[in-house]
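The aim of this short unit is practical: by the end, you should be able to scan a pair of folded records and say something sensible about each. We start with the first protein, listed as its amino acid sequence and then its structure tokens.
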Amino acid sequence: MEAYCMKCKTKREIVDPIASFNAAGAPITRGTCGVCGTTLYRIGKTDAHAGMVKPEKVDRRSGKLVIVESPAKAKTVGRFLGKGYTVRASVGHVRDLLRSQLSVDVENDFTPKYRVPNEKKAVVKELKRLAKEAAEIYLATDPDREGEAISWHLLEAAAIEQKLAKRVVFHEITENAISEAFANPRDINMDLVNAQQARRVLDRLVGYSISPILWEKVRSRLSAGRVQSVALRLIVDREREIDAFNPVEYWSIGAELRPHGQKQTFITKLAKIDDKDPELDKEEAVKPILVDMEKTDYSVSRVKRGERRRKPSAPFITSTLQQDASRKLGFTAKRTMGLAQGLYEGQDVGEAARPA
């Protein structure tokens, strides 16, 4: 049996060959060179391996991999978790429907066809490499329907073993919230994943047929989906109602009164004339009433007193946050949501600003 000798630069006969297996479980034969004494090494099964028990493959995985969505969040979460954790960002979705075709098999239960976009291939390749080396993998994407779907897509795209993957969810990026989430991992919620897939498929089915109409009638590269299409229909219906509206003239009469001996005034509104609703549909009907009201005396027949309770405003939701930011600060919706996302992910305030 021969093997290549690195020192002699040629094949030599193996002296005292010993059959064994390497760390990967492949059969090998070790020995020495009969000329220079260098250790020789040959891969391949021989008769000497017959009857030998192949050793179990040693799992050399170590460390814990955490995958979040954004790089800013990765830095903040990594700071809280400390050593032993490798935190990486998927930078949003890692798979999507093909752009060049419908990518939905309508005849086969609306099965979607996914691919990794070119701009995400480097990210997926890096995550796949890290996943092969990690003993535990935590999917810490956002705690919503999209985040759940991203975790599921990561399992598929990065070839992550199901038994190693754990889903963690936290609603605030604080040390306590993150510690609690990692102490109580769960499985991926497939109901949320399927809900996201249904939304994405519906978007594609509607948008793929409507978008070309926009390109032809308005301008190219516009997109339409399930939300824009319905919203446009509501606007059109409302415009048609406005166009069909027949304006009717009407008047209202009010009086500014001041009690005797007081400076403060209050505004009243005419509600009844002789216990009947007044018909103030034209100016001619209003003028006689104004003459009578200017000559008459007024008295307060009843005073109603009560209490009013003022409650604090409800916590912000997306729409009220955008409205207040626009009204009070002049922010656009895009700027508001960018700042909100940055605050959620954690802003680096520097060492001097952190508590001791």
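Turning to the second protein, read its sequence before its tokens, just as you did above.
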Amino acid sequence: MAPAISPLRYVDPRARRGPLYRAYARLASARLATWLARRRAWGAIVWRIDRRLLRVTGGRLGTGLLLPTALLETRGARSGLVRRNAVIYFHDGERVTIIASKAGHPGNPAWFYNACANPIVRLGDEEFRAEVVDDEPERARLWELADRLFPAFATYRRRAALAGRTIPIVQLVPQSSRAASGPPARR
């Protein structure tokens, strides 16, 4: 039996990152790393390992190592079956933001379609309602925060645009009266 999932760690995208994190994010954003992430076979292997590793460790360890990752649980849009995917996330007040980048590949990740069809999702040990961010000024603000957290997102955006795709941004709204742990919601 897998261990209980750890509470979702509060991730402030505005926080200053240490030199180790910055070096790791640079390495993960390097041309070779983004090239590998775009290879279907390599990406599929890494994401499968990540999903299992996060599940076995209760969400405490994934292949992203220093990057804030968590296990997103959705219900299949067609099957209704539980699906789990590792995602990079950050907080925006009490909301949690996730980017449907798929490393800039053409087409959105399956979890995005699942969250749109069945918007009640779990991230970490919390239940949320998924909402797609369509407002362009809000998207620009969230992209600025996302790029601070993980610079590869800017590269993914450029590659997706070349394929004619706009990468969706999804915000997760807490469903319980217990808001995500961390600072109070922004006003």
